[in-house]
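User: Can you predict the 3D structure of Egg lysin (Sperm-lysin)? Sequence below.
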Amino acid sequence: MKKVLVTIAVLAMTTACSIKQRVDPVQVNNSDEVCIQKNPDVREGFLAEVEKVLTEKKIKYRIIDQLDASQQCEWTATYTANWAWDLALYMVYAEIRVFRDGKLDGEAIYDARMGGANMNKFIDAEPKIRELIEQLIEQKQASLRWSPLNQVAI
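Assistant: Sure. Here are the predicted C-alpha coordinates for Egg lysin (Sperm-lysin):
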Protein backbone atom coordinates (compact mmCIF):
# COMPACT_ATOMS: atom_id res chain seq x y z
CA MET A 1 0.00 0.00 0.00
CA LYS A 2 2.86 2.32 0.82
CA LYS A 3 4.41 1.76 -2.63
CA VAL A 4 1.14 2.69 -4.32
CA LEU A 5 0.91 5.96 -2.37
CA VAL A 6 4.50 6.85 -3.19
CA THR A 7 3.91 6.11 -6.89
CA ILE A 8 0.78 8.28 -6.94
CA ALA A 9 2.63 11.10 -5.16
CA VAL A 10 5.52 10.98 -7.65
CA LEU A 11 3.11 10.98 -10.62
CA ALA A 12 1.18 13.90 -9.16
CA MET A 13 4.38 15.91 -8.70
CA THR A 14 5.72 15.22 -12.18
CA THR A 15 2.46 16.13 -13.92
CA ALA A 16 2.49 19.47 -12.11
CA CYS A 17 6.02 20.13 -13.43
CA SER A 18 5.01 21.17 -16.90
CA ILE A 19 6.47 23.69 -19.30
CA LYS A 20 4.02 25.20 -21.75
CA GLN A 21 4.59 26.82 -25.10
CA ARG A 22 1.94 28.18 -27.42
CA VAL A 23 2.33 30.07 -30.68
CA ASP A 24 -0.43 31.71 -32.67
CA PRO A 25 1.42 32.82 -35.85
CA VAL A 26 1.00 35.96 -37.93
CA GLN A 27 1.64 36.43 -41.64
CA VAL A 28 3.85 39.40 -42.39
CA ASN A 29 4.88 40.45 -45.89
CA ASN A 30 8.59 40.95 -46.29
CA SER A 31 7.77 44.47 -47.50
CA ASP A 32 6.05 45.39 -44.20
CA GLU A 33 7.75 47.13 -41.29
CA VAL A 34 7.26 46.04 -37.69
CA CYS A 35 7.53 48.57 -34.86
CA ILE A 36 8.91 46.92 -31.73
CA GLN A 37 8.10 48.62 -28.46
CA LYS A 38 11.23 48.47 -26.32
CA ASN A 39 10.67 47.03 -22.84
CA PRO A 40 13.32 48.44 -20.49
CA ASP A 41 12.40 45.88 -17.81
CA VAL A 42 13.64 42.95 -19.97
CA ARG A 43 17.29 41.98 -20.36
CA GLU A 44 18.97 43.61 -23.38
CA GLY A 45 19.85 40.23 -24.89
CA PHE A 46 16.18 39.44 -25.51
CA LEU A 47 15.65 42.37 -27.89
CA ALA A 48 19.06 41.77 -29.49
CA GLU A 49 18.04 38.20 -30.40
CA VAL A 50 14.67 39.39 -31.75
CA GLU A 51 16.49 41.92 -33.95
CA LYS A 52 18.95 39.28 -35.16
CA VAL A 53 16.14 36.91 -36.24
CA LEU A 54 14.16 39.67 -37.98
CA THR A 55 17.29 40.77 -39.84
CA GLU A 56 17.94 37.20 -40.98
CA LYS A 57 14.32 36.92 -42.15
CA LYS A 58 14.76 40.24 -44.00
CA ILE A 59 11.85 41.82 -42.15
CA LYS A 60 12.12 45.58 -41.72
CA TYR A 61 11.68 46.80 -38.17
CA ARG A 62 12.28 49.80 -35.98
CA ILE A 63 12.53 50.10 -32.22
CA ILE A 64 10.20 52.59 -30.56
CA ASP A 65 10.00 53.69 -26.94
CA GLN A 66 6.23 54.00 -26.76
CA LEU A 67 3.33 53.07 -28.98
CA ASP A 68 1.94 56.27 -30.43
CA ALA A 69 -0.67 56.70 -33.16
CA SER A 70 1.50 59.36 -34.80
CA GLN A 71 4.19 56.76 -35.58
CA GLN A 72 2.07 55.16 -38.32
CA CYS A 73 2.86 51.54 -37.44
CA GLU A 74 0.60 49.00 -39.15
CA TRP A 75 2.44 46.16 -37.37
CA THR A 76 3.58 46.53 -33.77
CA ALA A 77 5.17 44.04 -31.41
CA THR A 78 5.50 43.99 -27.64
CA TYR A 79 7.45 41.58 -25.48
CA THR A 80 8.11 40.66 -21.90
CA ALA A 81 10.31 38.07 -20.26
CA ASN A 82 11.27 37.05 -16.75
CA TRP A 83 14.18 35.10 -15.34
CA ALA A 84 14.25 33.08 -12.11
CA TRP A 85 16.86 31.42 -9.95
CA ASP A 86 16.70 27.70 -9.14
CA LEU A 87 20.24 26.30 -8.93
CA ALA A 88 20.94 28.55 -11.94
CA LEU A 89 19.44 31.59 -13.60
CA TYR A 90 16.99 30.65 -16.40
CA MET A 91 14.27 32.26 -18.51
CA VAL A 92 11.03 31.28 -16.83
CA TYR A 93 8.54 33.22 -18.97
CA ALA A 94 8.52 34.96 -22.35
CA GLU A 95 5.67 36.54 -24.27
CA ILE A 96 5.77 38.23 -27.67
CA ARG A 97 2.61 39.80 -29.04
CA VAL A 98 2.11 41.13 -32.56
CA PHE A 99 -0.65 43.62 -33.35
CA ARG A 100 -1.94 44.73 -36.73
CA ASP A 101 -3.67 48.11 -36.76
CA GLY A 102 -3.89 47.96 -32.98
CA LYS A 103 -5.60 44.55 -32.79
CA LEU A 104 -3.87 41.42 -31.50
CA ASP A 105 -2.99 39.29 -34.52
CA GLY A 106 -0.71 36.66 -32.97
CA GLU A 107 1.41 35.78 -29.98
CA ALA A 108 4.07 33.42 -28.74
CA ILE A 109 4.22 32.35 -25.09
CA TYR A 110 6.82 30.23 -23.30
CA ASP A 111 5.90 29.46 -19.69
CA ALA A 112 8.08 27.42 -17.33
CA ARG A 113 6.62 28.90 -14.12
CA MET A 114 5.12 25.51 -13.25
CA GLY A 115 8.37 23.76 -14.25
CA GLY A 116 9.17 22.78 -10.67
CA ALA A 117 11.43 19.72 -10.77
CA ASN A 118 11.45 19.56 -14.58
CA MET A 119 15.12 19.95 -15.56
CA ASN A 120 14.12 21.01 -19.10
CA LYS A 121 13.41 24.47 -17.71
CA PHE A 122 17.17 25.19 -17.73
CA ILE A 123 17.33 26.34 -21.33
CA ASP A 124 19.58 28.75 -23.14
CA ALA A 125 17.34 31.79 -23.72
CA GLU A 126 18.62 32.86 -27.15
CA PRO A 127 17.67 29.66 -29.03
CA LYS A 128 14.24 29.69 -27.34
CA ILE A 129 13.65 33.33 -28.34
CA ARG A 130 14.73 32.47 -31.90
CA GLU A 131 12.34 29.49 -31.97
CA LEU A 132 9.44 31.63 -30.73
CA ILE A 133 10.05 34.37 -33.33
CA GLU A 134 10.50 31.89 -36.18
CA GLN A 135 7.25 30.13 -35.29
CA LEU A 136 5.42 33.41 -34.68
CA ILE A 137 6.26 35.22 -37.92
CA GLU A 138 5.26 33.37 -41.04
CA GLN A 139 6.45 35.29 -44.04
CA LYS A 140 4.48 35.94 -47.15
CA GLN A 141 6.84 36.83 -49.94
CA ALA A 142 5.66 39.78 -51.97
CA SER A 143 5.09 38.33 -55.39
CA LEU A 144 5.25 39.90 -58.79
CA ARG A 145 2.91 38.28 -61.26
CA TRP A 146 3.80 38.13 -64.90
CA SER A 147 1.00 38.95 -67.21
CA PRO A 148 1.04 39.21 -71.00
CA LEU A 149 -1.12 42.33 -70.61
CA ASN A 150 1.79 44.12 -68.93
CA GLN A 151 4.08 43.59 -71.94
CA VAL A 152 5.26 46.67 -73.75
CA ALA A 153 6.34 46.59 -77.41
CA ILE A 154 9.70 48.14 -78.14
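The chain has a mean pLDDT of 77. The chain has three helices and eight strands.
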